[in-house]
Batch of 4 targets.
Target 1
Amino acid sequence: MIRFGRGELEGLGSAFPFPAGRAFLLSSPAVLGFHGERIRAALSGRAAVEIVFEDGETAKTLETLRGVLDAALAAGIRRDDFVVAAGGGTVTDLAGFAAAILLRGIAWYALPTTLLGMADAAIGGKTAVDHPAGKNMVGAFHPPAGVLIDPDLLSTLPPRRFREGVVEIFKTLLVGSGEAARRMAGRLEGIAGSGDADEYLEEAIRVKSAVVERDPRERGERRALNFGHTLGHAIEAAGGFSRWSHGEAVAIGAAAALRLSASLCGFSPPAAGAIARELVAFAGGGPALPAWSGEIEGFLSRDKKNTAAGAVAILLAGWGQPVAREVTPAQWKEALESLRDA
Amino acid sequence: MIRFGRGELEGLGSAFPFPAGRAFLLSSPAVLGFHGERIRAALSGRAAVEIVFEDGETAKTLETLRGVLDAALAAGIRRDDFVVAAGGGTVTDLAGFAAAILLRGIAWYALPTTLLGMADAAIGGKTAVDHPAGKNMVGAFHPPAGVLIDPDLLSTLPPRRFREGVVEIFKTLLVGSGEAARRMAGRLEGIAGSGDADEYLEEAIRVKSAVVERDPRERGERRALNFGHTLGHAIEAAGGFSRWSHGEAVAIGAAAALRLSASLCGFSPPAAGAIARELVAFAGGGPALPAWSGEIEGFLSRDKKNTAAGAVAILLAGWGQPVAREVTPAQWKEALESLRDA
């Protein structure tokens, strides 16, 4: 159940048919600093317990999770209590995973406060923490019982964080809504500058919700939403989850995947080239491009989606037409390096 | 999918339609000492990776789980690999939970080596680890894709471990198969002495599989299988998971629940009294009975099944007729103390 709209936050307390128990508000110091008072007011006293933990990819660990589990159990959490996770993707990923395994699973509700979280992380129930072996290696499919998306919360978001949401929206439209992706292409900088992505965000939410409803466990169609993420996750991990933001890494991964889409899958080379250039520029330009490394190759080989049959990536046969293709490390290397000369 | 029968272990390698990847054999030093060679032979070379961890309730912790996750990820586990968990309930609980959260869930297969595991723990997908706040506080519903039950494996089981399986079988029959429970009543010592519980085990497996198939997430009917476990878990936890075995604690918990069933739910008092006496004697007799304590009361108040509405326990209105009833700590105290005078 998704509520979308500016000003929706005020109605959080009655937005969903919550369970009978207490609300456990899970969030970060930064998010509570910006929005804590309004969230508590919106929950009108139902936030009986607050558990605060650091956000950011470097804190999305089994250790942080352990602290959250300890705090929730020390507060005597019960099966009819519920979690309200307020924050960016790392907060909702970790809080959602905690909800998935506390007492073998309790209900949770997502209140994403970043554009990336609104477009992607908070929808669809993929919860997880990272592990030294890779991103999101330990987790569960545990869909939130409700997601409240209020773009007004984005007014306090730093520009770099807003930009990564723009990338994620564009990625979703590229695989699931060719017409909207065509409209958005060429306008990434303009949207980031305006701070208003509502039109594209709403379409991305529509696409993502429909896909995960048809394929909640990512057995087929949902895999398409990983477009840009195969190489992107490897770049992000190789940079220690701090050198490149998730959005920057996905922008570069998507640009490389577009190159391969043109050479392997029949995506129009001029169009693919133009989008790839726009994505690279949007991610910081040529100097931001990572050099191919054994580390990137190592993380690629440990991608969760790999099977004994090999490493399958999502490419595009055209706007809104994802296809699964086996891609070798050598092909990724060539595609990544080709972005320098673009 | 359950395979049951003496000698079934030899056919493990082809007993189920396994995924395409590698088998990760998760087990304990003790189990591999007794059965390792036969299990490896039965898997005919598919056990590519072995991860060994201590069994027993005191080792069923988040720390042990962490070690298993680290080892599996270091070995590059993939989504088409699978877990084979060989051991007692603590091994299958922990290994099943690891399978539930590795890469957001991979397939697992249970090879229970204790009577308790065969009758209960390995069936139905309730996986978990314990937490200082209580037993099974962190876990997931993640049913095994296959369970192979070969009573021949029980020949090496110490008598005390065999006895706790006898209790669990009797508990299952009491709530789900009145006729078989009547047959088993009065014969607990005889069955334990013979080392052959096959007849009752097979019926308990039938009852439990049918119940969990109808109610996998324990939203209703399945709760009945917790008969004896409300007070039993509290006794077990108060004894540091070592003073009373799970089966002994459940025997005492079931005896107390039978007393309450007679006084509150219309179960025949002479029959309830006779079974309660048999269970207490089977668990070690009067000297084994725990004294009521604040610790037991504390664990009762944190029972996972509690809601804001109160603490509901499973009692019996008759043989094979479970009912859910609110039970106060004072009532549990009285029932526990009444067992001394029996």
Note: The two ends of chain A are 43 Å apart (CA to CA).
Target 2
Amino acid sequence: MTPKKKTKGTLIVLSGPSGVGKSTVIAELLSERKDIYFSVSYTTRGPRVGEADGVSYHFVSKEEFEGMIARDELLEYAKYVDNYYGTSMKVIREKLDAGVDVLLEIEVQGAATVKRKCPDAVCIFVIPPTFEELSRRLHGRATDDEQVIQGRLERAKAEYRQIPLYDYLVINDSVQSATREILSILCAEGCRVDQRLPMIRNQIEGVTAL
Amino acid sequence: MTPKKKTKGTLIVLSGPSGVGKSTVIAELLSERKDIYFSVSYTTRGPRVGEADGVSYHFVSKEEFEGMIARDELLEYAKYVDNYYGTSMKVIREKLDAGVDVLLEIEVQGAATVKRKCPDAVCIFVIPPTFEELSRRLHGRATDDEQVIQGRLERAKAEYRQIPLYDYLVINDSVQSATREILSILCAEGCRVDQRLPMIRNQIEGVTAL
């Protein structure tokens, strides 16, 4: 369901603890809203098995990444274990200016940076129905050992403390209900008076002076 | 579709020019969200043919109404042509405290009063797709003469100037799309961090200190 044509796109930031099901919700969201541009991050780490360039990440050299930093082309970036990870401001700005909604999946520190630089960004935090359920889902993956899982749960606790920085809190008790809530949030954001007034300026100016 | 249980109801204010189709949209909305309490106004004017007490209005005497004013029981009221019209604060407060969402259909001056007294109220203005369409709908009714219609259109222009006081602008190009937009707005408002944090306090307090 594509919303009515806007003059400027909405920047949507999605965060949530590892294991909450962000990827599944995002896939469902993008299948419902094919007009949304999903921003792929840049990284200097090498691709893992199954990771395609431009899909999982844009894989670039350290020199290329530092060039983007020098040219101030990044909305946010961070360095983990000698590798850079970041979001290109340039592409996002072009899309937003063309009226396209842009979705970023980003961790809490990056989200805080984005919110500071783009106060109009719509920031959504996804949580599981209960913390026990998060633990159950992480154990259910059966790919990580107990120490890794405990590390993820500890990190989740730290992320929970940042929830007040977000605009919306979506509970992922099912992919369908979480997706429906996000679709509603995006629809509602498009109905905000400040978003819609420019769209209907002709109707209003023909009638009165606002 | 009933939203997740909230600790406090949302006060929803709906306005829009005469002829925009508010009643039809409200009927559709209430059929989708049977949990919403639609607040019926109080008036001292006598019932017209087909108007039932407690449905169209609560019909009360001038003494009863002035008693409500004296006891500060009204959220907003106005006097038109020697008759009072107003909204009972008492009933609305009880419903909101019980976690029930309350819908008011109210004109722009009343909406401004409500927004001032209840800043958390979600104020939605409904407009037609074009102003010409509003004129066409008013003429299509075939119940009012041209002078009455022109009066309504003039009043609509004055109301348009108040749009910036509202939170959301819904375009009624079809009952279905307008209703869908309002449902999305209410769903999104229920997902706001300040609304949801109390709901999930147990989950969060079990995990961290917010």
Note: Chain A has a mean pLDDT of 89.
Target 3
Amino acid sequence: MAERLRMGLIGGGPGSFIGPVHRMAAELDGQIALVAGAFSSDAARSALAGEIYGIDPRRAYPDVAAMLTAEAARADPIDFVAITTPNCHHLSAATQSLAAGFAVVSDKPATATLEEARTLRDAVAAAGRPYALTYTYTGYPLVREARERVRRGAIGAVRKVVVEYPQGWLAGPAEHADNRQAVWRVDPTQAGPGGCIGDIGVHAFNLAEFVTGLSVDRLLADLGTVVPGRRLDDDVSVLLRFEGGARGVLMASQISIGELNGLRIRVYGETGSLDWHQEQPNSLSLHFSDGWTEVLRTGDAGLGADARAATRLPGGHPEGYLEAFANLYRDVATVLRGGTAPALQGVHQGVRGMAFIDTAVRASREQSGWVAFDGR
Amino acid sequence: MAERLRMGLIGGGPGSFIGPVHRMAAELDGQIALVAGAFSSDAARSALAGEIYGIDPRRAYPDVAAMLTAEAARADPIDFVAITTPNCHHLSAATQSLAAGFAVVSDKPATATLEEARTLRDAVAAAGRPYALTYTYTGYPLVREARERVRRGAIGAVRKVVVEYPQGWLAGPAEHADNRQAVWRVDPTQAGPGGCIGDIGVHAFNLAEFVTGLSVDRLLADLGTVVPGRRLDDDVSVLLRFEGGARGVLMASQISIGELNGLRIRVYGETGSLDWHQEQPNSLSLHFSDGWTEVLRTGDAGLGADARAATRLPGGHPEGYLEAFANLYRDVATVLRGGTAPALQGVHQGVRGMAFIDTAVRASREQSGWVAFDGR
Amino acid sequence: MAERLRMGLIGGGPGSFIGPVHRMAAELDGQIALVAGAFSSDAARSALAGEIYGIDPRRAYPDVAAMLTAEAARADPIDFVAITTPNCHHLSAATQSLAAGFAVVSDKPATATLEEARTLRDAVAAAGRPYALTYTYTGYPLVREARERVRRGAIGAVRKVVVEYPQGWLAGPAEHADNRQAVWRVDPTQAGPGGCIGDIGVHAFNLAEFVTGLSVDRLLADLGTVVPGRRLDDDVSVLLRFEGGARGVLMASQISIGELNGLRIRVYGETGSLDWHQEQPNSLSLHFSDGWTEVLRTGDAGLGADARAATRLPGGHPEGYLEAFANLYRDVATVLRGGTAPALQGVHQGVRGMAFIDTAVRASREQSGWVAFDGR
Amino acid sequence: MAERLRMGLIGGGPGSFIGPVHRMAAELDGQIALVAGAFSSDAARSALAGEIYGIDPRRAYPDVAAMLTAEAARADPIDFVAITTPNCHHLSAATQSLAAGFAVVSDKPATATLEEARTLRDAVAAAGRPYALTYTYTGYPLVREARERVRRGAIGAVRKVVVEYPQGWLAGPAEHADNRQAVWRVDPTQAGPGGCIGDIGVHAFNLAEFVTGLSVDRLLADLGTVVPGRRLDDDVSVLLRFEGGARGVLMASQISIGELNGLRIRVYGETGSLDWHQEQPNSLSLHFSDGWTEVLRTGDAGLGADARAATRLPGGHPEGYLEAFANLYRDVATVLRGGTAPALQGVHQGVRGMAFIDTAVRASREQSGWVAFDGR
């Protein structure tokens, strides 16, 4: 194995959920090491985070610019940054990093607004550096298998997609109960115009396009704010139409008490269907029109190359969220080392995701019925 | 036990699926006996059906009018009719029977059109005889428990309902493959204006109102015809708004390969939620906002009176579709003997169901976005 | 359909669980009618039961002998008796009925002791009348499918069987809490020498032999009495060896809190395996040595003739315990009308079941290790 | 966070399954780093492994002795070794390492024979250095919760334990198909006297004692070799008796086609029961004698301190095998830094495990019926 790639983290300070997840995922395969970070806009907190992560104290920087400058000057600079801040900082962090010559891994959604996403796309194109977006669920072996099966025609032409993403953790006013994860997600100045739709709806949207290989071209949205006083949506229903005419229903909700992280996708085709649920990620059900039902399990001998490459353990040894996330970083490492990783999501999917949020928020607000979806 | 109530069946001739189901369900508790029938508009087939059902050959009639006249003249006439024909005959069979003084049990939907349903409602009112509609799924013990829990406030005010009813049996052109069940269901002259929505969507609609105790007051519909050449819808997505503001998503589909009879309802309230699936009808999951998950099972000691009364066996002895159906007939017997059966669905729900079909079909065709729902 | 066969019930008086089950199951298909009974040894209670069942009051008899005599003298006598008493009355009821020329359906186990079972076998042989034993679980469509698949070699030679039957309802001293079902089952004078093993262990034993087509030829038993003061076993572990060398583990328990009626069988062969659980009776999992997993569901087109014949509804309409039970009565009707019903269990299986109880009780008491099993 | 602890790996060369697992698990929390290894007895292969693991080439040693000597001489020596060789090398690797002053983490079982385990115990006592055994499944959050619930009396006194561990990967002669994992596991000179029982039965045994807090004091074993020509057992059934009288059934099998890694434990107490399955590790079912069923999920607010401390992600983000394994290493780090980790399994459990294998193998071979279990 070549020397470990060096990662600089942006965000992920003390109390962050997703920062440590990025570190664990990035380092899991021994190909990447977290060596630097601008963990917080508060210099003391950034230093504290650096200590917690166990990095060289000199590489815990007070802000992004400082990190980029200092790292660029080192003999052993970081190879890429990973952005894990609230959405409102994504564009700035990404463009600065790209401009400084660093590759970028960014948490989703790409930016806070669609306009920003288009700006980012141009910046990526101009910089010519890799940019990857961590749509985590595309990293699961059986999600990749599902995509491959659809592509190979195992279920025939896609007719209908049902993708849902229920959660319950924002069913009460968590943002007033000092829940750090909640506060910024329901604040339009930090999250952008989408609440639930930007936080998890966009995952569902991406998963639907990823698995089916189809692009949405029209939608109809009904976004609700259920918890009184909240400023962004917390419950989302969207009807979809894909190119070629396939129908879709996308549901996302953060007020669904009892649901934890219930992302599920069902795809119905002309000759078969498939069903995958994130909370039981190691099985994938396939049904065929002759009444035959097959269950695939992570590690099965009959899986395709993509699924096998994304699997670390023998079947029956559950692989979970961190392993899926680590598969994205494995792809990142492959790309940084000059290879290709076709499943890795990039700025193209970033713009589409932001267009989804933007279009749905506007269509719902204006009750405009079916609207065209322009994901460019 | 008093003498068995006597049932006359309308429809349910040779090859019928639902006719024998009505007989088994009606007779299960030993309170009702099938004794007569106008099983087919073909006299020979009606006679054959009578023979198969094992009734007195003289009581296998060639048509409804003949049955009603002959039975009315007997010393031991039927106590009620059960209508199991295609939808287009429901109104006529019901009004004739009511006019002849007989109580009516009818398969759903109430009629072929909304206008017919309103006519039927007036006829029921005028006749003063019991009229019951077999929304089968309201007969499951745990559906009744779900309703009772919601009513008692176990999950707080309802915020969101997701009700889905996927099937796959019409994913291909079954109507051209000599499938009797398919032929009339996709024929507007027999089924009315709704295909999938009238066959199963209306079950989902009724279940949502039954469990929540709330009435839909607005909806937005997207009905599709996926199988080429089919004349009615076979895939349905409807967004709902209930009185008081709760949101809903209703999905029904008959092109969902691999799905058998997947009716499922999830209700999310302010303080809890519940989840029930028809194919695993003997468990009901409850979640509460403190993170507590409870699973109720048919036969559990802690269930309410309605659920217990609808249960025949100790827990762990699966009760299924026929037992649920039989619970409706048990209610019918109770009503016919002068008692009350609050869970029994009648012409009021029949009109609402037809209004649902009618409104959704028109709203979808006209792409009218959100429309008011008038269930009167 | 021919005239209904007439059934006389022995036992099944007020408060009985299994009596009404037999009636519902017997009558479900419209081929059999309950017309007479010796429901209780208390004449008043027998009359009351007759009223509840809705039969002619003159045919509610005070005892078995009276019923047999009176029915034999009628122009429309019963065609068979169904025995649903505590075990201690099985032999007497069966032999009297056979001697009077009636066919016999009996609840399991066949008798109270092995010696009685052998006496019964001789009586059946001498009478030349049909005798059927209601091993209920053999009536499920997918149990019959499992048997057929094994027989056809779908999983290769059987190597290992795990059959378990946990229940929890006797985890406390229910027999002192006025639980009628409990009282006789834990009383050796009514139940015979086996408690849990006779009540449910024998079902597990029968199911293992039924599905595999193999006969047990050795066993090792560990029976426990967990609840203080109880006189019979309430927790059972038995190691099995089948002819040809396949191994088995049989567990039955009535002190397993939370378990309702958890009969489950797993059969592992040289090239595949199968798994069926009574509480989810409408699916059957098959696994093959190449890593392939298939799930069969009741009603699937690919099922064999036996499973299809035992199915009343389209797939996805759950069929449960009563329907399985009714399949046994369907077989009984077939036999009484001169046909054959190879899946129907008879006195041969009755003797084997009693030999299983007897052998295991003795082997456990004497801690004799492995003992030969003689099921004749 | 303090500086990372330094790990030296023994075994885990190219093609190893468990070596990389130890590395990923050890490094997951950023507290430990793999820096050295004697990966293979073949020097070239050891060097290759070091390269794959990305360590300093000088620290990839040709044998254990070389590593211990060289590391002891460094300013930054390893803090502990992790042993991942076939069983036959465990004792030697552990005692050498202890003698050289290093702490030891060892894969299970502790050694190849009971006698060796007792020798090891003395060596651990003499060295006064930490020794930990990676009984992986004790690292799952909900296994720790189960243990805590039992200890707190949530299910009352334990009456019955059913622990099973079915796998299917050795259902055919994999050892003749060049399967490295298979070859040594079925070879008594490398694995010791137990095949399946030593590979996975011992996990089941440990889990039963871990969760219940009870010690086995008698057992009865039936070990089979199903695949022709195999020299060790591949199918295991053991009846257990715990101190205080609770009963147990332990099943382990490697010929159960379709089973992947199906470790499951059910514990039945006087007032409740619990059920956990390794392939769905993030839920734990609890049942209580009043009919109440509760489902706990990883991340639930109501879980105890041990489970919470073993959880890295919010509920609904599946944590799997690697995370469970990493919890053992987190405990190791705690101990090496002077803390305590009561759940960490050590040489005491190592001796008990070897005694279990030894006793069961002998009891089965000699068909000695119930035998006393001496785990010292």
Note: Residues 170 and 312 of chain C are 34 Å apart (CA to CA).
Target 4
Amino acid sequence: MSKDFAERAKEIDLNSRELFQAAPGPMGAYRDLMTKVSADGVLDGKTKELMALAISVAIRCEGCITYHARASSKKGASREEVAETITVAVEMGGGPAAVYGAEALAAFDQFDGA
Amino acid sequence: MSKDFAERAKEIDLNSRELFQAAPGPMGAYRDLMTKVSADGVLDGKTKELMALAISVAIRCEGCITYHARASSKKGASREEVAETITVAVEMGGGPAAVYGAEALAAFDQFDGA
Amino acid sequence: MSKDFAERAKEIDLNSRELFQAAPGPMGAYRDLMTKVSADGVLDGKTKELMALAISVAIRCEGCITYHARASSKKGASREEVAETITVAVEMGGGPAAVYGAEALAAFDQFDGA
Amino acid sequence: MSKDFAERAKEIDLNSRELFQAAPGPMGAYRDLMTKVSADGVLDGKTKELMALAISVAIRCEGCITYHARASSKKGASREEVAETITVAVEMGGGPAAVYGAEALAAFDQFDGA
Amino acid sequence: MSKDFAERAKEIDLNSRELFQAAPGPMGAYRDLMTKVSADGVLDGKTKELMALAISVAIRCEGCITYHARASSKKGASREEVAETITVAVEMGGGPAAVYGAEALAAFDQFDGA
Amino acid sequence: MSKDFAERAKEIDLNSRELFQAAPGPMGAYRDLMTKVSADGVLDGKTKELMALAISVAIRCEGCITYHARASSKKGASREEVAETITVAVEMGGGPAAVYGAEALAAFDQFDGA
């Protein structure tokens, strides 16, 4: 049986809130960085979200995969776009990226109601 | 209590199948790469499988450890060979490799019926 | 609900014992390395423990986070020191370090009885 | 004075040719993977090239940065698109990604004749 | 003959300036994060600088090593403190950290006029 | 023109000597670990050296590649064995491993007098 990614996302949100409260100065600056990066620019927000997902898979960051799979769904990415994004990570990360990429697709499917 | 690695392997297999179906072109090429690398050559398949396990431990890829611990067992690696393989990863990865190496040995023991 | 880090630590300890028994020579040398590094020197043991925690977060080593969060608590680190340590990891690791740093703080809180 | 990235690219090409000749089976399968990933799909080739650059920066792969900065220029990416791509890597990789991202921009500028 | 780290630092500074100008919003937020993290807190600035150096060595970030070796010297870290910091990275990173740690000590020696 | 790996190896040796002198306790324990891992066991020393090379390529550690390419040559590894070892790293590391693997083969060729 597959992991419950919504449950995992809730745990990440909860733990993050604690960290932001414990170190509001630096973490506030980090949030500002996130906000500025994810805004539409010459690249739209969805494309940048998919880039963040590609990096998450390539570096095998399980928590980041959960976070950015959810965000990709929210920004309207399609399953086909997510799958192609994952293949870039596989090109750049080999077998480990295939394992975590498969998890990313499963997470996206859960968040996207597929 | 230790993790159920057979259960974890099933989840990896299931998610992988979805990814291969969603991106058959690139993932087929990746499968071809895997097949060619794992074949006997001047190095036999078991030795290359142990190398893949060593890398899995050194890069702390939990899913890969499950996958390659199972494959090492299937290719007839002994517990002693797996343990020595893990020590190379510890030399090259320090404490984190010790933590994931210990998990690799536990996974091998489960798959090998030890 | 958050993870049970004490349970996770027990699993790490158990698996590590098996690895140390399976490869006593190299793993004994590694234990010797750990002992020498963690001793008080020109930097005290607590500071070095926090450095190990910072690295654990920056490299996203979930098992190491459990291990060094517990050790930081045992060496008397305060919650404020742990939080500042995590911010260094976030500076050096971005979003993934924020996710794993939040987990490190949660682990420390459990071990420290917060 | 900045590095000569064209010279570095030539060295990578030369060494790669040797590796492809030494292991034509697996490396041919890897080339096939690259070809399939970089083709236009639901995401166009330029976007996927920028994703590969983002990953290169996030994982601090100096040779990959050279390779994918050149490819991004060839696929018609603009300096603004490259800069935004790098900021995603900084969000996901912190200071190390800022250092390697700055190198990626310098490489792109050289290849793009800026 | 050893590398000229002052020259390398100048190149990093130059490339970074370009990146900050090309993406002032996100990079300004990142600079704000750096400033807040490096300030004295419950941990003093020197200790946090050494933590950043430890992470740089553990993740094998050559540019970061140059940057944080220089900053450690500026914040008054002693050679003994730097050496102990490196041993924590070796505990957490094995042989690769020994190679990059040796480079970090050489960089510190150059910046510190040893 | 390709890098001079013998020169690079000399620089690594020189810097390492300084680090071993600056922190003889921990670094002596690390040397002990290396010695015990590289000894013949159920896996012979050459095989373990090739495993260390595979890890070096997979984690993109340029200094380690130099070090372990030289050691692989000293232990009598053939060019074919090195090439197959690199393909395992490519399976486990994708494009970045192809770039660093190509460098590993070039380094081996220099040390082996090819």
Note: The mean pLDDT of chain F is 97.
